[in-house]
Amino acid sequence: IYTASDTSGIPRLKNFGTAKSLTEMPIIFNEADINLNLTSKPIRSGLPLRIFDILSCEGFLISNYQPEIAELFVPDEEIVMYGSIEELIELCGYYLEHRSRAREIAHAGFEKLQREYTYERQLERMFTMAFGDLV
Asked: Which pLDDT belongs to residue 135?
């Protein structure tokens, strides 16, 4: 795991510390068998930027369920989501045994970002929302 958090209470966990955002994180996201997005419990909705970070590096992602994620990405085709810790553990086991399927999902998420979430497309959406058909 890469974190600045204290993980000393988890004896078998190897903590690599922090990673540099622009140089190390893209490699980690791309090469990891599974990237996890674990949103803090009080955050019940929204889109964490980390989702876009991981998918833009063609990383395979399992995220806790947030309704907004399912609005933008096709579950189990572009991103995998879980609803409980038990389901997360089951999914991790499955995708560690089916790495080619995980890579297919990672590639589909990456392609979705390249197609739908460019700066140009996002600015167009923002201006349309702000000004309607005037743009």
From this structure: 55
Rounded distance between C-alpha atoms, residue 16 and residue 93, angstroms? 22
Chain-centroid distance of CA 74 in Å reads: 13
Q: pLDDT digit string (tens) for 46-100?
A: 788 899 999 999 999 999 998 899 999 999 999 999 999 999 999 999 999 999 9
According to DSSP, the β-strands at 80-82 and 35-37 are unpaired
Kindly compute the dihedral angle of the four CA atoms of residues 100, 64, 81, 16, in this order, to the nearest 10 degrees: 0
Question: Hey, which residues does 61 pair with through a beta bridge?
Answer: 35
